[in-house]
Fold this protein.
Amino acid sequence: MRCHNIHPVRLDTLAPDITLSDHERFKIPYDELHLGAEIGTGTYSNIKKAEWQGQIVAVKQLKREEEGPGEREKVFNDFRREVWIMSGIKHPNVVNLIGFCLQPQFCLVMEFLPCGDLYSFIHNKAQVLDMPRILKIALDIACGMRHLHSATPPFVHRDLKSPNILVRMN
C-alpha cells in the first residue's frame, strides 16, 4: 500500500489486527499438518484429526464454497475474530488454540480431545453415565462458560449445544 504514491506503508504495521500479524506466534505452515480422517462437520467448516510436530491435533477447515461479492471478506473477518478470541482464552474447560493457517485455506489448529463431542458421548450405549459424572460434566461446562462471560469484554458462545461441547476424560 502506498501513501500518496510517496512512501510505502506496510498494512501489517498500520493495522496488525486486520492482517493477524500480531498473532505471528500462532501461524502454522499448512504443509506441516498431516491431515487424517474427518471427525466432524458444520455449516461453515469441517474438522479433521491431524498430526503436527508429533502431536495429535484437531484442524477446523473453513469451507470455501462459491463466495459472492463481499463474502470472502466476511469469511476472513469471522475467521480473524475467532483467531483473536481463541488466542486469548486459556482455561482447562475451553479447547485451546494451538495455531492457525491462512494458505491455502483458513484453518484453526486446536487441541484434540479423543472422547469427541458430548452428544455422541451421552448417546454411546457403552458409556456409563452415573450421577457424579453427569454433575462433573455440567460443572465443567458451567466453569468454561463462566470464564468466557467474565472476560473483558465478555464472550458469548452463541451456539452452546451438546455437539459443540468436547469431552475430556480426567
